# Entry
Amino acid sequence: MKWLKSRYNQVLAIIMIMMAILAIRLFGLTVVEGAQWGEAASNISIKSISTPAPRGEILDRYGRVMAGNIPSFTVQFSSGDLTNEQINSVSRNLIRILEENGDSYYDNFPILIENGKFYYTYQKDIESWLESQGMPINFTAEQAFSEIRRRQNIDEGLDRYDAQVELQSVYNIFPPISVRHMKYLKEMDKESFLQRYYLDTELTAEEAFRELRSKFEIPSSLSDAEARKIMVIRNELSSQGYRKYIPAKIASGVSDETIVIIEEKSSDLPGVEVVAESIRYYPNGNTAAHVLGYLGQISESEKAEYVDEKGYKANDLIGREGIERALESTLKGKDGTKNVEVNAFGELVRVINEIEPKKGKNVYLTIDLELQKTAEAALEQALTEIQRAGTFESEWGNYKYGTAYRNANVGAVVAIEVETGDVLAMASYPAFDPNLFATGISKEDWNALQGENLRDPLSPLPLFNVAARTAVQPGSTFKMVTATAALESGLDPTRKLKDGGAVKLGNRTYGCLVWNRNRSNHGYINLYEALEVSCNYYFFDIATGRDFSRGVSLGFKDPINIEKITSYAQQYGLGLKTGIEIPETVIPVPSQERKLAQIKAMLRNVLIGRAEIYFEQSLIKDKEKLNKNIMTIVGWTEENPSRNELIRRLGTLGIKENFIETVADLCKYTYFNQATWTTGDELIIAIGQGENAYTPLQMTNYIATIGNEGVHNKVSLIGAIEGKGKVIKEPGKKIAVDEQNLEHIIEGMKRVVSGPRGSLKGAFANFPVQVAGKTGTAERGGKINPPDEVEYIKQHLSKINSSLRWENVEKEMERLMKDYPDVYTTKNYAVRQAVINLSNGRVTSERIDAYKANYDPFAWVMTLAPAEDPKIAVGVLLFQGGTAGYAAPVAREVIAKYLQLDKTYEDYSLETSITQ
# Structure
C-alpha cells in the first residue's frame, strides 16, 4: 500500500471513491427508480391555472336583476422566468402607465410611509378601531375584549367563547378579535404577511421594508416611495404563493388609454397582458343594499381557507355581507382551468389545454324590486320631513308632521307575505352603494360610510342593517301578545274595565299617556277600545288578572303571569331567530335570570368605578383583595339582606366608615331590590317596555302570524336557485291560540286604523282598503352621548360644579388612567370619575349628564292588509321618530304599491311564481 502514502494518491483515491458512489446513485435514479421519478417530474411540470367564473346574478322574485356583472378590462402580470431586475423594471413602467392615465391599481402592500416614517396598515387599522371604541390605542386584544365585556355587562362567569357568542347574538357586536388566539385579526394578518416572506414577525415596519427591498433587489438609486410602488406589484405576485405561474391581477376597470399603451409597449412589458373579465354591478345603486350585501378582499388570515383550500386567487373578491356572503359558494360558480407546463421554478413554459369557466348559479330572492324601491323612497321621505316638521306628500293624502324631531335620521321598514313568510321588502336607512365595493373599496369611501358618533348607539351607520340587526323596545305594538295571553286565560273581549289613570306601586306610578300628560283617563273600555286608544291601564289589568281600579281579581279561568306572556311572545317568534338567511340580532324575551345577571354586572361596575371613594386606601392598593370584596358584595344580590345587616357586613370589607350607609343604601335600594321580578316589571313588560327588545323583522313576522290565523312561518329571502328550482320551506307552525281570539285582536287593530280615536285614522283616512294596525311609541332611556366626553365636561364644568377647575380634573383623570389602567380604559370614563372624586362623591352621574340631550321616542307602526283577508304585513321603525303615527305614511305607501293601487306599477302579476 506504498501507493497510498503519497498525498496526491490519497486525494486521487478519495475522488475515485466519490465518483463511484455518484455513479451507483445515478444508476439507481435512472434505471432502478427511473419510472417513479419520471412520473413525479411529469406531475411537477404540469399545473392547472384557475380562470375566474362570473358570479351568478341576484334577481328579484320576478327575475329583475338586482346584482349582475358588467365586462371590464383587467391588467395581469405573470413574472414567469423574469429576473428580479426585469420584474422591477416592468413593475415600475406599469405603475407609471396606470398613474398617468388616472387608473387605480391594487395596493395591498401593508407598509406605508408618511413623512419618512414607516408603519403597518394593520396597526393603523387596529388603532383606528380602538379610537372609534373610545379605547387607548395601545390596548392589547385581551384588554379590548375585556373592556367590551364590561361595557355590555357580560356575566363574568362566562368563558371568552361564550362571551363572544353573547356579544354577537345578543348585542350584535363583532369585535375584530380572534378569541381563540386572543389577538386582533389584523395582528394575525401582519404575522401571515411576514411569514410569507420568511421574516421575523417582530420586525418593525421599517425593518421589514428594508429586508424586502433587499430581497427584491430594488436599486438603491430609487427613493423609498418609488421602491414601495414596485413592492406593491411584487406583493401581488408573491401572494400567489408557490403558484407563480398564475398571473397576478394588478388593476381592474382600466381605461382605453391604458389598454392601448400596454399593447403598444408589450415588448417592454413582458408578462403583462390585458384580459377581459366581469365585475360585480348593482344596477339599482343603494336599493336593497343591506339585503344584497357587498364584496370584499380576502384577508391574509383567510388565504389558507380561500386560496389554498378553495382555489381562489389571492386578490379575488368574496361576499362580505348579505346574500353575497350567505350564498358565496353558490354565486361563485366554477372557475375554468388552463393546464400549463412549468419548469422546476414554477415558471410558465406553455399552455396545454383550457376549460372555459362556468358562471355561478343565479339566485332569485323573495324581494319585489319595485316594492323595495317604494319602501326605501317612503322611508327616506318620512325621515326627511319629520326632521323639519314638513309634509309627507302622497296621492293617498298628505300627512303633516306637526313637530320636528331633528334626530329622526335612522329607520327601517319590512314587508312580509302573510301566507308564506317571504320577505317582499326590507329597507334600512341610511344605506350605501354596494358598487363602491365591486373592485375593492377605497379608504376614503370606507371612512365615509362609518358613523359620525360611535358613542351614540342610535346614530346613523350606513352599513348597518337596522331591519334585521337592531333590537329595541316595541312599545304598544307588543300589546297584542299580552292580549293573546289574556284571551287564552279567559278574558272576555267585550267586558268593560275602568281605566283608573295610573297604578301606584310603592313610590312609582305607572300610567296611560293621557294620564301622564293631563291626568285624564279613557273611562270604561273593552279590549277593542283598549287597542284603539292604546290604554296602558287596561293592559296592566289583563296582564296581572287584576282589576286595579276596584282592587279585585278579574276571575280568569286560567292564571296569567309574566311567564305566560313571554311564552306567547316566543310562539309569535319574538326573541328567537326568524330563519332569515343573513345575519340578524336576537335578544331573548325577558326573564328573571337575565335581569339578575344584568343587575349584578351593573353593581359590580359601579363599585369598581367608585372604589377610591368608597374603599379604604389600603384596600385600593391591593387590587386582588379589592375585587374579591366587591364580588362578595355582588354575591349578596339574590339574598338581599336587610339594611342593618348590610351595614354590619360592609363594615368588615374595607368600606370607609363615613360611606358604609351610602354603599348599603346604594346596594339595597338601587340594585338588590330591583333584582327580582316585581309587579312593576310585569306592568312595563306587558306594554312592550322594559327588557323587551326585538327587531323590525321579528315584529313584522309576529304581525304576519296574527294575520295568518296563528300559523307562524320562518322568514325567508331566498326564493329559488338556478338549477335547483324553488326553495322548499318547512310548513308553518300553528301557535296555541284559538282563531276566534285572533279575530278579536284583528278587530281591535282595525279600530286603530278606522276607529274614531284610532292613532292611524288620519294617515289612512283616504285609503280605499281596510287596514288593521297598531302603533307604538317606545321610550329610549339615557342621554345622547357626545362624540367626546372630555370636551363635553370641559365645556360644562362650571355648571356641573362651579368649585372645580379643569386643570385639576385633567390631572385627576390622568392619574386614574395611570394607576388603574384596567378600570379607566379611556379618557371618556376617567374624566367622569375624576369629577366625582374631586367633589368627594357629591357630583353624581346624573348631574354630569344634565346638559346632554334626551333621546326622542322610537316610532313603531305595524299593519296588516287587507284587514279581512291579510296578504301583507308591513312594519316600520323610526329611531327618535317622536310619535308612533309619524311612521304611518311609510306603511301606507308600501301597502298601496303591493295592492297595485298605484297605477304606474309595472305590469308584473303578484300571482306569478318565482322564476325557476
Remarks:
- The chain has 36 helices and 31 strands.
